[in-house]
């Protein structure tokens, strides 16, 4: 499959080739003859094709620029994982690490020597910061 960049190169090359052919000339003895003097309809057709290819090239270029702009905007608007983890307390980071290993709330409470209600509070804080509603969403977001 041809890449977008390669398509643009081909289309622009064809446009330049057609435009140059439209203004080509030949020597007849000592006299120059331009293509539009001998065959004006062919020259006009070549120029129209050249303009068509330039228009296609411009559309491809605009699509490429739009894609770059959207990627830049999405990159700026999407917070990184580090941004989320900076907002977590050290204890919440520990809880999050244990959630990633697949431990239950009770197992987390036992391992960290804290009450089950404290684990639930930490988990709710993590969900708020990650902007998720359950473990599966949190784990999916962390994987991304």
Tags for this model:
single chain; 144 residues; mainly alpha; two-stranded antiparallel sheet; 8 helices; 2 strands; rod-shaped
Description:
The chain is mostly helical and 144 residues long. It is 77% helix and 6% strand. The protein contains eight helices and two strands. It has helices spanning 4-22, 35-38, 40-77, 81-87, 90-100, 105-112, 116-130, 135-143, and strands at residues 25-28, 31-34. A two-stranded antiparallel sheet has the order 1-2. The longest helix has 38 residues, at 40-77. The radius of gyration is 32 Å and the shape is rod-shaped. The chain starts with a helix and ends with a helix. The relative contact order is 0.08. The mean pLDDT is 82.
């Amino acid at each position: 499959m041809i890449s977008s960049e390669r398509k643009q190169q081909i289309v622009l090359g064809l446009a330049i080739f057609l435009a140059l052919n439209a203004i080509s000339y030949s020597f007849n003895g000592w006299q120059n003859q331009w293509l539009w003097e001998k065959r004006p309809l062919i020259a006009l057709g070549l120029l129209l094709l050249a303009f068509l290819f330039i228009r296609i090239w411009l559309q491809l270029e605009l699509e490429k620029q739009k894609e770059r702009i959207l990627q830049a905007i999405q990159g700026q608007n999407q917070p990184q994982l580090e941004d989320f983890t900076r907002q977590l307390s050290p204890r919440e980071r520990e809880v999050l690490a244990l959630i990633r290993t697949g431990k239950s709330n009770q197992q987390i409470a036992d391992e960290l020597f804290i009450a089950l209600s404290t684990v639930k509070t930490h988990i709710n804080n993590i969900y708020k910061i990650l902007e998720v509603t359950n473990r599966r969403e949190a784990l999916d977001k962390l994987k991304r």
